[in-house]
């Protein structure tokens, strides 16, 4: 059983790395500031009897079910979209050094330290020196805005962010035309997505071109679908028609029309990824996703930035995930990233 700062529990594990019996009476979750209630609603809607406990901005703790089992490693893998980092709690501590001492009681544990400072800001106090290996035990030390310090343990797994607090804290380049660059790069890092150099992407609602810029600078061919103008910083990559696109190297074809009017001739062949940043309801975006997947049988991945008008729409997430499963995507993830407000990244992989 894991311990807590003010309320200590016996520590009986000299090493956490391969011990499946790790447990704690408390579990904490890092989320985006303003998403705390949405997170608690997700937990409630799942049917779990987790009891909400202490909370402050961007940080929510839960107590294990009354008379039920303690929290275990398997609970940390539950797919809550608002949760960037989940950990078995080691407790609350008077300062960072006390939290670090508790975490270091476990042999070979890696240490992440973060600080919640203001809205949409989570600072890496000591950046992770390397990407963690699958199964590695990681202790996260958190300094919250109130000055409190908490510690918890999680085990790295596929589709968990490798970064402290579930956030890369990357900075958007000054020449990016929009924050879409940041949202895409954060998601790519979070899920550790890899792409072949010759893969072609299509993005709906691409203007002014933040995601396009990120893909082009990584050497990909991109079809941007949007009736609006693109940033001048993309002009050097532009080709006049889809047929004029080169076989290799970064290129951009701007299909200057609404997504609903884009047809197979505009797309050509060989598209590997469907992407969307459309300002439309999730149902509309997923309908377009299905149409594009039907036109392009080579699509192996989907990345959609879903934009909600209210967090209550998150109750429809099972429908969004189910829609991608019906299209043949076996792996589907929904995640709110640090740069998001009322937005969620939806990923589908065949």
Summarize the structure.
The protein is an alpha/beta fold. It has helices spanning 36-45, 96-103, 180-191, 210-217, 264-267, 282-295, 317-326, and strands at 23-24, 26-30, 51-56, 59-63, 71-72, 85-93, 110-118, 121-126, 137-143, 149-155, 200-204, 221-225, 251-255, 271-276, 301-307, 331-335, 343-349. The longest helix has 14 residues, at 282-295.
Question: What would you note in describing this structure?
Answer:
- The protein has 350 residues and is an alpha/beta fold.
- The chain has helices at 36-45, 96-103, 180-191, 210-217, 264-267, 282-295, 317-326, and strands at residues 23-24, 26-30, 51-56, 59-63, 71-72, 85-93, 110-118, 121-126, 137-143, 149-155, 200-204, 221-225, 251-255, 271-276, 301-307, 331-335, 343-349.
- It folds into two domains: 23-166, VC0802-like, CATH 3.30.2130; 180-349, Rossmann fold, CATH 3.40.50.
- Helix content is 19%, strand content 28%.
- The strands form three sheets. The protein has an eight-stranded mixed β-sheet, with helices on one face. It has a seven-stranded mixed β-sheet with strand order 13-12-11-14-15-17-16, sandwiched between helices.
- Helix 3 (180-191) crosses helix 4 (210-217).
- 43% of the residues are buried.
- The model is unreliable at 4-18 (pLDDT under 50).
